[in-house]
Every structure is written in structure tokens, then in C-alpha cells.
Design brief:
Elements lengths: L14 E5 L4 H13 L3 E6 L6 H4 L9 E5 L9 H6 L2 E4 L6 H6 L1 H22 L2 E5 L27 E2 L17 H21 L3 E6 L2 E2 L17 H11 L3 E4 L5 E3 L1 E2 H13 L1 H4 L2 E5 L5 E3 H16 L8 E4 L1 H5 L10 E2 L2 H7 L7 H27 L1
């Protein structure tokens, strides 16, 4: 039975070049492409751990997915696969606040300078590009600069983030290292838009708002090193039976979107180019807004449930940003996506509540990591 897109047109199978397709988002996208479409995926990444189940010889999709292990950073070997594909999806990014501080040059190079080549090859070969940016490009909200006693701080007009209207407000360059990532991605978006304006590049830009689900980041000293993003930091503390550290008391507000909901949005972009080309899309769940402290408390309760334990009376401890990320840390105050454009263009809305996505994700983490974490702790002792 033929599949049709939102305009009733037959969906023709595509060859998709996935740069950085072996990671968290890429692995879920590959699963979706294999299970629900006839598209072919050519995946480039430093590792394949998260998609090995698709690459196995016994996999029913083995003939539609191939993996190439390469060092993505500063790699010029993408010209040939981009030209041979119908669509390129660039998922490669450095997006950890820890790296913004200790690897600032790599942050700028990876998120801007290295990505320039991908855009160049797509433009020259007249191939479509879906580029993954970040919600961090918005920076701080207008409401954060209003007096704390002003009712306007609660007006969505001053904090709801709109692709075609909201300003990008960053902190100072000197010392506030966090904004190197946002600046690099904003410049990347501007370059892509300019390539379309001058050379007719068919593009779609995706701004993810905290996509959560199984196979996120890593657990330090088990399958990775360094400091992961906030959700996996909390997850790691829970697995180790430690208190969850709240930077600055965990006052920042965030929204969280289930990865499988988000991947549905990406598939709509892939298969509806007439509706998605030339667009920047927020992809998040504005209904799942909590403070970072509330997230920690919810995760503690949910993990106790899935692990069959009693929730501890006191599960968090406050730490300074200097301790966690070094001097010069800064943060966005509130990240709530306006969903008007993606709803109008693609008819997409998120479905999964924060409670449900936490239960799904933490169940996976407990089942897959609790024994290895316990073993690692015993070896340390």
C-alpha cells in the first residue's frame, strides 16, 4: 500500500545522508525510518553502539541502512555521499555546557565552521538539507529583563519563543562562555538562510527543546566521560544513589519533549518538503514545563517507583555554577516554544506528558544501567 504525505502525494523512497546519525536523536530517527518507511539511511558517526541492532545481519532492515565510522569533526569526505543522496540531515553538534567552558574552540568549530562544508556541498549539488540547531539560539527572554514586580513578566508575549518574531538575547562574550554555542548555531542558521536567498538552497532548520528518551547521552565512567546534560546528570545520580545537584538552586525553567513525539515531527519534515522547505521549526512540548528543581524531584519519585525503592526524604543539594561548570557560567531563564508554525505547516503536536516520558526513560535506564553502575561502584571501592 502506497504511503502519501499531508497533501495526498505519493511518498517516494529517499536516500538520506545522516551526519551524526549514530547518537541519541539519530538512533531513534533511524528506527523510525526503518520501521515505518521505505527510505534508505546512510549513517556517518564516530560510533554505532546505539544503532547496532539495526545493522545486525539478522536485522530485517539491513539492506536499507549502512554505517560509516569516521571522525565527523573537520571531515571533508561528505561531498560524495551528499551528492549521492536525496536529502542530508546534519545532527552533528557539541551541546554540553561542560564543553562550552572547557572546549570553547571545539564548540565553535563543530557547530559552525565544520558545518559550513555540509551546507556548501548541499548548495552545490542542489540537495535538500535538514539542519539541527538548538533552542539555545533564543538566549534569554524579554521577560527576564523586566522588573520582578511587573505583571508583564507573566505575559506570554514577553517569554514565548517564536521562530519569526523573538529576538535572540545573549549574555556578554567576555567570561560568559555558555553563549559560544548559541552564537555558533545562530550564525549557522543565518548562513543557511543566506544560501537559500542567494543560491536557492532547500532547507529546514530544527530547534529541539530538550528531547528526552532512552539512549540519551551517557553515564560517566560506564559508557562515557565528562559531564552530560542535566537530565543524564540527574539520571546518573539516581543510579548511583547520590543526591541530585542543583546548579544555582535549580530555578531555571525548561520544557521537555518525548523523543518519539519529536521524531514524528522530523518525519513529517522529511516527507513534506513543500511545507517544510524554508522553515525554522520549534519542536518541543510547552505543556511539560517545570523548574530544574521540580524535574529533579519528579525524577526521584519516578525512579523510586521503577526501581522498587522508597523515595528518599531529601534528594537534592544546591551547588554553585562555578563548581559544576567553572567561572563564567550563564543560563537561559525560560525556554517555552511557540508551536504555531509547526502546527500550521505540518499539523504536529506533542502527545506525551512529562510523567509518562520520565517513566519510560527511567525504566529503560534502570534496566540497562543499574547493574553496570553497581559494578563500577564496587570496583572503585
Amino acid at each position: 500500500m502506497e504511503r502519501v504525505n499531508l497533501d495526498g502525494e505519493e511518498i517516494i523512497p529517499l536516500t538520506i545522508c545522516l551526519i551524526g546519525g549514530g547518537g541519541f536523536i539519530g538512533s531513534h530517527l533511524c528506527e523510525k525510518l526503518m520501521a515505518d518507511t521505505s527510505h534508505k539511511a546512510i549513517v556517518f558517526d564516530n560510533h554505532s553502539d546505539k544503532i547496532n541492532h539495526l545493522l545486525d545481519q539478522s536485522s530485517p532492515w539491513r539492506d536499507r541502512i549502512e554505517f560509516h565510522k569516521i571522525n565527523i569533526t573537520n571531515n571533508s569526505r561528505f561531498e560524495t555521499p551528499i551528492k549521492a543522496s536525496d536529502l542530508t540531515i546534519n545532527l552533528d553538534a557539541i551541546c554540553s555546557p561542560y564543553q562550552f567552558k572547557w572546549e570553547p574552540l571545539d564548540t565553535i568549530r563543530d557547530n559552525f565552521l565544520d558545518a559550513i562544508q555540509v551546507v556548501k556541498y548541499c548548495t552545490e549539488s542542489k540537495k535538500r538539507l535538514i539542519h539541527f540547531s538548538t533552542c539555545e539560539v533564543y538566549g534569554k527572554t524579554v521577560s527576564s529583563f523586566l522588573p520582578k514586580d511587573r505583571d508583564l513578566r507573566q505575559d506570554p508575549e514577553f517569554y514565548l519563543l517564536k521562530e519569526d518574531a523573538s529576538p535572540c538575547i545573549f549574555g556578554p562574550v567576555i567570561e560568559k562562555h555558555r553563549w559560544s554555542y548559541a552564537c555558533a548555531e545562530q550564525m549557522m542558521e543565518s548562513l543557511i538562510y543566506a544560501e537559500d536567498a542567494e543560491h536557492g538552497l532547500d532547507f529546514t532548520v530544527v530547534r529541539p527543546f530538550n528531547w528526552i528518551g532512552p539512549r540519551m547521552d551517557f553515564n560517566p565512567r560506564v559508557d562515557g566521560d565528562g559531564v552530560p546534560r542535566v537530565f543524564d546528570c540527574f539520571n546518573n545520580y539516581l543510579l548511583r544513589g547520590e543526591k541530585l545537584e542543583l546548579v544555582g538552586g535549580g530555578k531555571s525553567l525548561r520544557t521537555f519533549c518525548y523523543i518519539k513525539d519529536a521524531i514524528e515531527a522530523v518525519l513529517l519534515m522529511i516527507e513534506n518538503p513543500k511545507r517544510a522547505n524554508g522553515q525554522i521549526f520549534n519542536v518541543g512540548n510547552p505543556d511539560n514545563e517545570v523548574t530544574v528543581k521540580q524535574l529533579a524531584e519528579m525524577m526521584t519519585e519516578v525512579y523510586a517507583k521503577v526501581a522498587g525503592k522508597s523515595a528518599p526524604g531529601s534528594s537534592t543539594t544546591d551547588v554553585s555554577s562555578k563548581v559544576s561548570y567553572g567561572e563564567g557560567y550563564d543560563d537561559s531563564d525560560k525556554l517555552i516554544p511557540d508551536m504555531t508554525i509547526i502546527s500550521k505547516q505540518l499539523g504536529w503536536k506533542p502527545k506525551t506528558s512529562l510523567q509518562d516520558l520520565l517513566e519510560i526513560t527511567l525504566s529503560y535506564e534502570h534496566q540497562n544501567y543499574s547493574k553496570s553502575i553497581k559494578k563500577a561502584l564496587c570496583e572503585i571501592r
